[in-house]
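Researcher: We plan to redesign the surface later, but first we want a full-length starting point. Tokens attached.
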């Protein structure tokens, strides 16, 4: 297992950090398969994974859909994912940041069909709210009517991001209950994520998804600060 050293900041362009993440935060194929059910994928789907990491979810999804496409900013993640997906002729992975990924998809995937399913887990909190809006608006024309979407990430389900400071004491109490004995170990990382990364409120996500023609069809909070959002393009 790769160990994190004191100086290792979360930086997806640092291969040492990527290796640390991949070896410490693995997800089982069973857990990824459960997301396929949530997304209700079928054999005709063209599935895009935003922040595909080393390609584990794409590998699980590939036999169940027509095509899988991954996008990730880290050249190391992209090369690991491409290696992992070599046996799957219906898979491709592009190296791009989220905001530029609609353009990169059109440039790099020849005869790109309309995308019918979008998945993103633990990735979009890296974008500020204006960046999330910009990414959604540029992707919108590539998404088919009826397209399904599942985002799972840091999401504030009971307040909006601009009210984080007044909600922080309550949030930290909930974290302490949620993580139990592990809380003291996790406290620094969680505080850093709440304050310095960009988890955002459910109101923001709902508004921005509606603005590109989606309707939120389900909320899947695991806590008040992390969970999933299902939506469909109407
Ligand atoms: C926490 S990992 C999650 C990986 C995978 N989705 C999972 O659930 O295990 C976040 C991924 O998002 C990618 N990422 C972070 N910021 C990004 C950005 N601005 N544009 C594209 N990818 C980004 C990272 O390289 C990394 O692979």
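Model: Full-length starting sequence:
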């Amino acid at each position: 297992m790769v160990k994190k050293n004191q100086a290792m900041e979360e930086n997806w362009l640092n291969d040492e950090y990527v290796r640390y993440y991949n070896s410490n935060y693995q997800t089982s194929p069973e857990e990824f398969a459960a997301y396929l059910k949530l997304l209700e994928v079928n054999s005709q789907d063209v599935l895009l994974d935003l922040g595909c990491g080393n390609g584990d979810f794409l590998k699980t999804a590939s036999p169940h859909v027509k095509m899988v496409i991954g996008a990730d900013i880290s050249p190391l993640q992209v090369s690991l994912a491409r290696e992992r997906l070599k046996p799957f002729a219906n898979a491709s992975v592009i190296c791009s940041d989220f905001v530029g990924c609609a353009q990169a998809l059109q440039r790099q995937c020849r005869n790109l069909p309309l995308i019918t399913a979008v998945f993103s887990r633990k990735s979009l909190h890296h974008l500020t709210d204006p960046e999330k809006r910009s990414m959604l608006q540029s992707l919108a024309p590539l998404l088919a009517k009826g397209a399904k979407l599942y985002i799972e990430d840091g999401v504030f389900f009971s307040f909006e991001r601009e009210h984080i400071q007044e909600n922080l004491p309550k949030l930290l109490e909930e974290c302490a209950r949620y993580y139990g004995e592990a809380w003291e170990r996790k406290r620094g990382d969680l505080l850093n994520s709440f304050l310095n990364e960009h988890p955002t409120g459910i109101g923001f996500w709902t508004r921005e998804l509606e603005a590109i023609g989606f309707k939120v069809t389900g909320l899947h909070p695991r806590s008040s600060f992390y969970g999933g959002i299902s939506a469909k393009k109407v």
